[in-house]
Amino acid sequence: MFSGVTATAAPGTWLAVTGPSGAGKSTLLAVLLGFLPAATGRAAVTGTAAWCPQEAHLFDSTLRGNLMLGVPAAEAVPGMTHERGDAGLEAALTAVGLSTVVWRLPAGLDTRIGPGGSFLSGGERQRLAVARTLLTGAEVILLDEPTAHLDAQAGREMLADLRAGLKDRTVVMVTHNPADIQPDDARLDLSAASRAGAAALLIG
Fold first, then answer.
1. Of residues 182, 186, 122, 117, the one with CA closest to residue 148
2. Would you identify the CATH topology of the domain 1-48+138-204?
3. How many CB atoms sit inside 10 A of residue 142's CB?
4. How confident is the model at residue 192, as a pLDDT?
5. Cβ–Cβ under 8 Å, residues 163 and 173
6. CATH topology of domain 61-137
7. Domain limits of the chain?
């Protein structure tokens, strides 16, 4: 739980949320997603929000099958040709820096990834999970410890791709890693949250 904090993230900006375990980072994400009501204060999200958890589950299916889970039902038109549908999937893969890897595979999007994505590297699994989140079309993307299971180099490369691909979205990133944060990011340090006063969070 936290109180006495204020943060704003405008469209096209990143808000880095930091703090020790138990500071309320997961609670904050739950409030922004509408899973929990704010007891006091205000948390407002403009548009829709989509969450990419730290341990996003990947199914023992193809790349295409996993990505299509992120596409809203209204857009997943029965009988849609691969050519039409693949354009959106390719755009999401490009945004996370995964397109060149996928198109080098003999079966492309129809490549199976194994149980939990076991045929992919840790970085590829995380990128795929973020791409699936982008396909929801949400204006606000919530990233929960996106580099937690990557080495330093892979983490830097993935975030560089994400910052380029998500330049038009609002991103709230929960992280323990100072290297994930850039100087121009907005910051919310929950370790400095007080026990008095209301919270005010305006996202998007």
1. 122
2. Rossmann fold (3.40.50)
3. 25
4. 64
5. no
6. Rossmann fold (3.40.50)
7. 1-48+138-204, 61-137
Question: Which amino acid is residue 51, in one-letter code?
Answer: W
Q: How many CB atoms lie within 10 A of CB 198?
A: 13
The one-letter code for the residue type at 82 is H
Write out pLDDT tens, residues 177-193. Answer: 999 999 999 999 888 66
Tokens representing 16 are 């880095």
Q: Is the pLDDT of residue 81 over 60?
A: no
Structure tokens at 109: 């999007």
Rounded to whole angstroms, the Cα distance separating 137 from 23 reads: 30
Tokens of 10: 């405008």
Instruction: Convert the pLDDT of each residue in 155-175 to its tens digit.
Output: 899 899 889 988 888 999 999
Considering just the CA atoms, what is the radius of gyration of the chain in Å?
A: 18
Element (H, E) at 43: strand 42-45
d(CA 169, CA 164): 10
DSSP 160-192: HHHHHHTTTSEEEEE-S-GGG--TTSEEEEGGG
